[in-house]
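Can you make up a polypeptide sequence alongside its tokenized fold?
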Amino acid sequence: MSENPAQNPRPAQLDDRSPWVVDTRELGRRAGLSRELRRSAPVPTSLGVPGVLEIREGEPVELDLMLESVVEGVLVTGTAAAVATGECSRCLDPVTENVEVDLTELFAYPGSATEETTDEDEIPRLVDDRIDLEPTVRDAVVLALPLAPLCREDCPGLCIECGVKWADLEPGHGHEKIDPRWAALVERFDENAGEKPAHGSGEQA
């Protein structure tokens, strides 16, 4: 009789060559031990909305973190910072946005009470005493990106009639609008104004 498949299959191994993967073995699962981590890690895929604001693939994320061994796992705290590029949502000029997020994430030890009582999409796990920081940083950074980036807070945007930036237009710029109900009358008036009066066609008294 064949054995039943494992209810919780072993997670795939993490790639030690990735700058996002951190070996925590030196913490030794002894609560209270900690270490600092500072490194630069490129994003594997673009983060954000292309054409609006994004951290492009390969751009570095600067990590400044503290790893602390606690009873249930490894607690990671600190910051992640990157530069996003895109365009102003009002005038469409290029914009550059410095993005920095605060991180607080517990990576659960295998066999811990936290691992047994939570799903992996709620709290990440250690795999062979290693942690993968990329999903945690990615989620935090994406949430921090503004949905409507601006080149400056008071950007006046574009003229809705001609599409030129208000900042480049002369004071008092505007476009006259004719009520559609009067448009035909104005057109007829212009036609009549262009006609020359006939000479000698009137009757004399």
In short: Residues 21-144 form one domain.
